[in-house]
Amino acid sequence: MDLTVHIPDDIATRLRGTAGDFSRRALEALALEEYKGGHISKPELRRMLGFETRYELDGFLKEHGMYEGFTFEEVEPQVETLKQLGF
């Protein structure tokens, strides 16, 4: 499926100048949110993002704060606690 997103020209101009491919970043953001929300499985996320191995997907998830066995909602309060303790 192809998806078109309309962004105001002045904002789109600034976005094009940022690091990375904008279309890829948009796809990754959408796929990650759908995974976090439980709407797609890990194998489906891997297919959406075109990763050939689970290792690649695990790296992607870790880059975005998602660790195996924990949901974002489970990890976030622990991170805040560690910050308060000075870690």
Explain how this protein is built.
By secondary structure, this protein is an all-alpha fold. It has one domain (9-84). 62% of the residues lie in helices and 0% in strands. It contains five helices and no strands. Helix 2 packs antiparallel against helix 3. It starts with 8 loop residues before the first helix and ends with a helix. The model has no long low-confidence stretch (mean pLDDT 86).
Question: What would you say about this model in short?
Answer:
With 87 residues, the protein is mainly alpha-helical. The chain has helices spanning 9-16, 22-36, 42-49, 54-63, 72-84.
Number of strands: 0
By secondary-structure content and strand pairing, the structural class works out as mainly alpha
Principal-axes shape call: globular
* Helix percent band: 55-70%
Strand content range: under 5%
The total of helices stands at 5
From the alpha carbons, calculate the radius of gyration and give it in angstroms: 16 Å
First-residue to last-residue Cα separation: 44 Å
Give me the oligomer status.
single chain
**SSE pattern, N- to C-terminal:** HHHHH
Low-confidence stretches: none
How many discrete domains? Answer: 1
